[in-house]
Amino acid sequence: MDAPAPSPPPTDGSAPVVSLRGIGRDFGRVRALDGVTLDLPPGSVGLLGPNGAGKSTMLKILLGLLPPSRGEASVLGVDPVRDPRGVRRRVGYMPEVDAYITGLTGVESVSYAGVLSGLPRSAAMQRAHAVLHYVGLGEIRYRKVEEFSTGMRQRVRLAQALVHDPDLLFLDEPTNGLDPDGREEILEVIRDLSTRHGKRVVLCSHLLRDVERTCDHVVLLAAGRVARQGTMAEVRGGRKDFLRVRGRGESAGFEATLR
Question: pTM for the full model?
Answer without folding.
Answer: 0.84
